[in-house]
Amino acid sequence: MLVLKYVISDTKCLWGFKLSFLIVFLAVIFGAVHLAVGVFKIWQNTPVIIGISSTLSPIKNIPFPAITVCNMNQAKKSKVEHMMSGTLGYAMLQKTCYRDFNYTLTDIQQENETFPNFIKSISEKCEDLIVSCTFHQNKIPCTDIFREIFVDEGLCCIFNFLHPYYLYKFKSPYIRDYTSSDRFADIAVDWDPISGYPKRLPTSYYPRPGVGVGTTMGLQIILNGRVNDYFCSSTNGQGFKVLLYNPIDQPRMKESGLPVMIGHQTSFRIIARSFIALPNIRNIHRTSRQCIFSDEQQLLFYRYYTRRNCEAECDALFYLRLCNCIPYYLPLVYSNVSICDVVHFKCLNSAELEIFDVKSLQCKELCLPSCNDLIFFPDSFATPFSQNHVNINKYFQNMSSEYIRQNLAVINFFHTDNYFRSSVRTSYTGSTEYMALTGGILSLMIGFSVIIIAEIIYIIFLVLTVILFLIL
User: Is pTM beyond 0.90 here?
Assistant: First the structure.
């Protein structure tokens, strides 16, 4: 600023020197502004940075993953082989088995002959599919820890999922809570990635937390595929599908399900990853920070926001808009909507082939990841059963090794570490840091400080005074 004052007010200096000083001053100003603008662009383009937490989190503070298990067999042969062509049941069976069919020729639907009821009647029940369960070294009746639920591949079995009372805003008639209600059963409690578990917990509760590492401290289940009762598969083979995910998430078996082969022992090593958002990023717009806090966006059906839950509601609205109904496995975004049945199958098939829908894409673009989230990454490996002798469980000691190899599968789910590190979302450059960086650049280049502002005002006032004096 002294240079500028010298150029303007010193009358003894030649104009050539004044001009050179002015050029230097303007060059320095340009360089300082250029560097300051660069800092501003970094502040705008990279508002959030994801770092690693300095502290370790114990797995006992988070739930064991929610696990969905599905049989690839979509219909039991013993239940459907008698169905005659042209009947309502036969038409529903074609939809269940993903086969082409002219649904306009189907008889008029009878009372209680809904598609969800039909799927329940022909699908394998959890008590028949999951024949043995061991959790934390304790053998538990599978009906106490698994319940039946509809997903996009039919009726499946779900473990450690948040109770519908805490997860949904209103009751869905197609979600069946089969958790045991006797005095030894676990008590359902609330959980979410931000608040975690309630401070006061019962002795035995679910979603159940992780308590240790290794197969002995995890979950082991034995599945019976009953391959002789296969009618049609969701794939081109026999076996099962499993999915590990957050207990408040909407499961998607078709997109994310992992295959499990019959006649093998498959182990899933669980790698937990948690995302934590610091409060200082709340002032940053969601499109810039690329995540949403759960209290920023309310969903229609779910109490808790997650990206999968949001996208599931977008899918439900898509089918509701095109077919005036919602498929049985998607959330009922409105309590009075209809579940899709035979009369809607033709429209559903057309909607499923819809590649580009503007409204649906716009809806899903708003479904950003949760700022606070919990993700499980499974690392799986499988080994085939022995050809000579298979020793799985005392319950199966009367079964032949051949039957076990052709029908059964053993799955282990377990943590590999007692602790994990969280990923922390925080602002890359806060307002204080931005002022410090910009002020440091301006101070280095032109000696700028807060007091300079008063000097600039003084110089402007001085120049205006001289101009007015010359004019008058």
Answer: no
